[in-house]
Write a structure and sequence with these properties.
mainly alpha, about 80% helix, about 0% strand
Length: about 80
C-alpha cells in the first residue's frame, strides 16, 4: 500500500519489480531457514500462508479505497459520473 501512494504512475514497471523482489527475498529467506535446519519446514510453510492471507486481506480491503481516492483526486470519477448509463 505504501508503494501505491509513494511511487508515481509514471514508473509503471517499478512497482511490480519491487513486489517481485520482496517476494523472492521472502521465499529465499524461508528456504534458507529450512536448508540450514534452523526452522521446521511446516513452520516456514505456515508462515508463508499467514503472510499470503494478510496480503490478500489488505489488498481486498484497502486497494478499493486507494484507487477510488486516486481517481477522485485526478477527476476520473467526476467525468465518468457525468455520462448517462
Amino acid at each position: 500500500m505504501y508503494f501505491n501512494s509513494a511511487i508515481s504512475d509514471s514508473t509503471k514497471l517499478l512497482k511490480p519489480v519491487l513486489v517481485f523482489a520482496f517476494a523472492i527475498a521472502a521465499a529465499l529467506t524461508g528456504l534458507t531457514q529450512i536448508t540450514q535446519h534452523r526452522s521446521h519446514p511446516i513452520d516456514v510453510y505456515v508462515g508463508f500462508l499467514i503472510g499470503a492471507f494478510i496480503a490478500a486481506y489488505l489488498v481486498s480491503s484497502e486497494m478499493p479505497k486507494l484507487t477510488t481516492a486516486n481517481r477522485r483526486a485526478v477527476g476520473y470519477v467526476v467525468a465518468l459520473e457525468s455520462f448517462p448509463h
